[in-house]
Amino acid sequence: MSAPRDPASAAVARTLTAGVAASLLAMALGYVLALLGGGPLPAAATPLADLPSGLGALDPGAVMSLGLLLLLATPAARVAVLVWQFARRREWLFAAVSLTVLGILAASVALGRAE
Amino acid sequence: MLILLAYVVAGAAAGTLGALVGLGGGIIIVPVLSLFLGVPIHQAVAASLVAVVATSSVAAIGYVRDEITNLRLGMTLETATTAGAIGGGLLASHLQREVLSAVFAAFLVLNALYLILKQSRGERARADAPETGALGGRYHDAVLGREVSYRVHNVPLGMAVSALAGAISGLLGIGGGPIKVPMMTSAMGVPMKAAAATSNFMIGVTACASAALYYNRGLVSPAVAVPVALGVAAGAYAGSRLARRVHGAHLSRILAAVLSILAVQMSLAAAGIRLR
């Protein structure tokens, strides 16, 4: 695997690697914490509002939920990276296209909250 | 405790098989979770979407770094797949378990056919495009030992089919590669390698759009989704390593048979009959 010549490809690959690594780490840590605790694994994801307090207490469910959220945020992050990369190269059409995708992702989060 | 191990194993098997034959794991994860491990189908779909984001992201790192993925084409079609995925995700909550199982069974048959047909239809050699246009691309093909360049055709058709693929993804918790890859190779003029890599690239964002809906509905269960995602990530990695040593054609036929059996069981489950 050689380093890509295209800086956009390199930036996307870096973003995906960091996102996947962070999320897998959090998920694995939460999983181990849950197994060590001996209790049943959490059946429902921790709501966003309760996440900080749960993480502070090293609650296995909160750590696993953080891992899940980091994983779901990874594709969104790479779309944001592409908005920036295209804009930097003045490829306005593709910057706008990427921004549209980011907008649709934001809409899905908003729709989910409104449901 | 045993069930947790079963989730990891199911994820790992789906990830490995998926990477070996070029399917996301979702098509295997949903039926295995819902038929054999007693997970309600809506939760199985949610766990599968998380797994799809994991496989797509892991596999995309390599494809993007090798510059086989067409970023511009991927982003363009993603506007359609993500919008479709929200539609599919919204629709899923209004469908009963039985209806969802029946739709899934039909899609399993389609996937089995795809695996069989893919064998018989080799990639047509195409003249290299000197001018790639705004959406076209070029990449170095290691097998051919040269640079391949192509133009992209039929973008409106591609957008329409992508929206449909996105809706099915949001509804059934799968990636939808068997819809997008043939569309790109046969209608849009994209070479197989670039089509597969670009489809994989799009799948993560598509699944992300509907997964947000499932997460807010409380359907993403850490107890199910985390072991499956960990298993699938490990499996996808192992599968991509094994792929060079395993003969894909035989495996595709075996997997087609497995998918057909799962389709029968899913149909029976839809009709309220449960076999083990």
Explain what this protein looks like in three dimensions.
The complex is a heterodimer of chains A (115) and B (276). Chain A is mainly α. Chain A is 77% helix and 0% strand. In chain A, 41% of the residues are buried. By secondary structure, chain B is mostly helical. Chain B has one domain (2-270). Chain B is built from ten helices and two strands. Chain B has a two-stranded antiparallel ribbon with strand order 1-2. In chain B, strand 1 and strand 2 form a beta hairpin. In chain B, helix 1 packs antiparallel against helix 2, helix 5 (97-120) runs antiparallel to helix 10 and helix 7 (177-187) runs antiparallel to helix 8 (192-216). The interface between A and B is large, with 57 and 52 residues.
Unreliable stretches of chain A (pLDDT < 50, length at least 5) are none
Helix content class of chain A: over 70%
Low-pLDDT segments of chain B:
none
Number of domains of chain B: 1
Number of strands of chain A: 0
Oligomer: heterodimer
Number of E-state strands of chain B: 2
Q: What is the topology, as strand order, of the major beta sheet of chain B?
A: 1-2
The biggest beta sheet of chain B is recorded as:
2 strands, antiparallel
Q: Classify the beta-strand content of chain A into a percent band.
A: under 5%
Kindly report the average pLDDT value of chain B. Answer: 85
Radius of gyration of chain B: 18 Å
What's the topology here?
The complex is a heterodimer of chains A (115) and B (276).
Chain A: H1 7-37, H2 51-56, H3 60-88, H4 92-114
Chain B: H1 2-21, H2 26-36, H3 41-65, H4 71-92, H5 97-120, E1 137-141, E2 146-150, H6 155-172, H7 177-187, H8 192-216, H9 222-242, H10 248-270
Antiparallel strand pairs in B: 1-2
Helix pairs in contact in B: 1-2, 1-9, 2-3, 2-10, 3-8, 3-9, 4-6, 4-8, 5-10, 6-7, 6-8, 7-8
